[in-house]
From TrEMBL:
InterPro entries listed in its UniProt record: 2Fe-2S-bd (IPR002888), 2Fe-2S-bd_dom_sf (IPR036884), 2Fe-2S_ferredoxin-like_sf (IPR036010), 2Fe-2S_ferredoxin-type (IPR001041), 2Fe2S_fd_BS (IPR006058), Beta-grasp_dom_sf (IPR012675), Diverse_Oxidoreductases (IPR051452)
PROSITE patterns: 2FE2S_FER_1, 2FE2S_FER_2
Record's keyword terms, sorted: 2Fe-2S, Iron, Iron-sulfur, Metal-binding, Oxidoreductase
Pfam family for this entry, one: Fer2
Protein name per UniProt: (2Fe-2S)-binding protein
Sequence ranges assigned to domain 2Fe-2S ferredoxin-type in this UniProt record: 1-77
Amino acid sequence: MTIELTINGITRQFDGDPDMPLLWYLRDHAALPGTKYGCGMGLCGACSVHIDGKVQRSCVTPMSAMAGRRVTTIEGLAPEGRLHPVQQAWLELDVAQCGYCQAGQIMAAVDLLKTTPEPDDAAIAAIGNLCRCGTYPRIRQAIRRAAELARKEDA
Ligand code: FES
Ligand code: FES
């Protein structure tokens, strides 16, 4: 059975094993390696992408669930090279250390700001994405800064 889905605005067809995790498809078939493999069990958030505009863990999302769905990965967050406010804030505050978790952190932060434009520490902590380097204080600052930048863009 052919599964048709859209990734970063491009329609793609998949005819392989429907049990294949979306993460595998993104990295090995669609050549989008920005999304990372961490735990493979839905726990760490390194593999976070947006599916129909909502953050999801792609390591535990099978291709069989992807028919007709719209995926955005970190590669699709800045169409035409215009950075998302979360990306701008990440750069300003130099959030990344090793960088491995950061694509997932950014995708999760973008999703949070959609529903919670002025998140407090508890809302940010509820994201639950893990960072082995411990960049949590800078992530918190950057999310607040991104919220500020987004408000300015909307003004
Ligand atoms: S790799 Fe998907 S949650 Fe850890
Ligand atoms: S920056 Fe290294 S794991 Fe988060």
